[in-house]
Amino acid sequence: MFVRVLALGIVLASQCASALAYDAQTAAGWLTQFSAALDSLMPLNDPVLTADPARAGQFLQEYEFGTVTRLQNPSAEEILEIDMRTAQVTDCRGVRVGMPLEQAFDGTMPSYGASPLVVLATQEAGYGWSWAYMSDDGVYGVEYIAYGGDEMMKEYTLTYVIEHGVISAIRMKIADATLAQAQDGLETAEEIASRQDAGALIEANSQPMLTQDDLQIDGGRALGMPVEQLIALMGEPAQIQTLPQGTGRVLVYAGAVVTLGFNEATGEEIVRAVSVSSEAFEGPNRLRVGMSLGEAGGLLRCDQNIYSRGGTLYLEGEAQGEAPYGELQVLSSGELLLLYACQAEDDTALLQAIVQDGFISGWQMMYLSDRQGGV
Question: Residue 239 pLDDT more than 70?
Fold first, then answer.
């Protein structure tokens, strides 16, 4: 039995392992191939004993890879549903149970969505679309739906169940359909897609990520620089305060506060943090107070559209929060925090901006080791 099931997996994988597209023609062709391979397998159960009295003529066959719901004969036209629970069978997109989310969808899945349902794409030709089911933890299901057929239209639905970032089950369901049903479904998907695109707070872009050279104020490098260089940029402060226990000083300007500390290796007084609340000062990559969130989010890289629930702008580190990193966070106060991290010297540097009513109300750059309790 194992050899036969393995052969089934090899037969189905050999033609489809590199396929990523999904449409009715692809689904129908795969079903024909699947049905032919299934003829060589003996079900684990007696299908007659699993006949459903509520669905006359339907039978459930159990196999090592999962189950097949069918009519009287196991031909492609008679298969109603396939439920794959092991990695022995590759589907028509080249995906298997146990495959990581990133691999199964080529890294195109959203991390967050404005609603529990996010449309991924609609077909350019014919009737079909794909969408993802979202929770606060990310994607937990993906569905591809396509319509096709000559004499009688069929609906082919391919569903992925996702647990902890891994495909845990794959289901294909085939049902009779009408042209009106296909048109209505596509229209609904296109309407959802148009609304979700309009609701993006930050749109995807290919700008560079934040680097330590970007940690500037008014066009000059500030974070980690000697105090004399900062004063040359910003002018003499209105007030100078000394921090407790001689740990440094604070320079107070109209609309800005600069925190100074000491370079432990050289003893030189350097800039440890800058906090700005005025439009008078330009920050990294031309960031300014009063700028809209959409404009501010477009100054640095964003891999996917970001919505009101927040989300990852880019993630290059091994774990969330490690440099380089970008994120839009939703704070308990209802405000938003636009946060970027990059490597700087022997520390991580942060650039963060508070967003109120869609606009930047203030921004800060600092070292992670100096960050005090969040914002």
Answer: yes
